[in-house]
Amino acid sequence: MEEQATDKQVDRLEAQIDARFQNIETEIRELRSEQKASTLELRAEIQASTQELRSEIQAFAQELRGENQTITQELRSEIQASHRELRASIESMQRNMLFGFFSLAGLMLTYAGFQLS
User: Fold this and answer.
1) pTM of the prediction?
2) What is the DSSP string of the chain?
């Protein structure tokens, strides 16, 4: 009789242990499914953030290209204006040098003429 009571207690303990293991397995499954859901949610957020960052980078790059083109055009126009001014100054300097050369040549010829006479 005592053996039957012990067997019943063992059976009851086995049933309780089995029930607790089933509860643990259920909780583990729930945790895994929650983890998968969280992982999928995080992946979706990361993809959305990545896409948003890419579009922002592209917009910023376009803006920089536009600014670069504007600055390039401004620099070209300034260089062209400076080139025109420099060219005018060089031409004026060339005229002055030519005038000076002819004046010097004339003086030399005049002086040479006085020397011959």
Assistant:
1) 0.51
2) -HHHHHHHHHHHHHHHHHHHHHHHHHHHHHHHHHHHHHHHHHHHHHHHHHHHHHHHHHHHHHHHHHHHHHHHHHHHHHHHHHHHHHHHHHHHHHHHHHHHHHHHHHHHHHHHHHHH-
